Amino acid sequence: GQSNVELSCEMATKLAESFATQLPVGATVLVSRDYHKNSRMLKRAFLGGLLSAGINVIDYRDISSAVLRCSLSSHTEYTAGVHFRQKLDDPTSTVITFYNDEALRINNDVSKKIEKAFFKETFRRVDYSNIGEIYESDHEKEYNVYKEGMKALLKAHTYKCTDCRVAVDVMHGMASEVFPEILNDLGVDNIMFNAHPDVHRLANINSLENQTKQDMSAVIQALNLDAGFILYPYGQRLDLVCDKGTVLGKQSSLYVVLSLLNMEAKIAGIKKNVFLPTWAADIVYFENLNIERGQYANFRSEDMKQYDLVATGEGNFAFTQFATHRDSMFASLKILEMLLAHDVTLSSIIESFPEFYYETIKVDCSQALKGKMMRMFLEDAKGKESSTLDGVKIWLDKNDWILMIPDQYSDHLNLYIQAENDEKGQEILAIYSAKIEEWSKL
């Protein structure tokens, strides 16, 4: 919600009380934030609500959510975690994310309980002797757990024994606090960009993103670097830049990672398990990967550990050997390790893929019309191969399909279209754009 408007200090306190009421008295919750003053203000109001319900708090202050989640998942004595950050595409709004004891986002059942307590104001107020306490952290212990856990899984000699240089842009995010040190300890020869806080540049993320991509492309070409990694500010999304300076699209990045994982599985003589969302491209077959597609929601840690990789198709990668949550820092190092181990370049992998059409389109649609659109797409799917696993997916040919998922939060439909070539893809887009317009008038 909008900082200090929809998300006021009063609401943050009530939200904390609603959340704390679902936890046992004396439980310990980790709380962190980004460096924005709005996040700081709301987090402080939130802490008061937790304390009033008898919850102890470890205050991490400004720290990356990836480090918070790593700490949460590696300590059984911590019950939950909460992270405050400004919304990337709307600097006037704050996002509060709740994590369970497995460092995964709370599921729908817990969300509904919090909502019910919030609106009915059924808060728990403990006796003065049971009011919670705040313990502040200097980050040293958390950073050490994070760094050592990463170094234990990655082969440091792989980076040190090769003539490899990369560029890394952390986009003024919290990764700048810990990632340069990890790169240095592992012996990764790197050039680091935007490794300092800057609220004003983050306020215009589109401008920052465009500038970052231009700069990375120019630097990689000029200095003949081997790869580039763009870590988005809140430690989850990752963009790849190949050795020729081309910034890879989301589906291309996904296919690069799948190709590298496929090579690793082939050498090991095993098959690796991967989970992807229903909208991820599926035009390339990987013989050493078991790929399952479904809805990325309400996962438990034990479910995710069945897979070697869980990816969202949006630049988010969770390599479960390290953690069951998305982490752009570990993902970038794991991708680099696989590139060096197999002695391949990003550009050579990209050139091995067939060219195909893949687009994501947002179509305006009011909340009142979303149910109708679902029904119309289901009727249109009759007699065709289709799936309702997440939204409505209709196959028009072997590799040509359209998937419609109503957006949960805003007034539009998400359309995902894959086709063997641009001509087919544009045709599918034109046909269904016309159909949606016609259906909305009925």
Description:
The chain is of the alpha/beta class. It is built from 15 helices and 18 strands. It has helices at residues 9-20, 37-52, 65-74, 108-120, 140-153, 156-160, 179-186, 199-202, 205-223, 250-268, 301-304, 328-341, 346-351, 367-380, 422-441, and strands spanning 28-33, 56-62, 80-87, 90-99, 134-136, 165-169, 189-193, 227-231, 238-241, 272-277, 289-294, 309-311, 317-319, 357-364, 386-387, 392-395, 401-406, 412-419. The strands form four sheets. A five-stranded mixed β-sheet has the order 4-3-1-2-5, sandwiched between helices. Strands 14-18-17-16-15 form a five-stranded antiparallel β-sheet, with helices on one face. It is globular, with a radius of gyration of 23 Å. The model has no long low-confidence stretch (mean pLDDT 93).
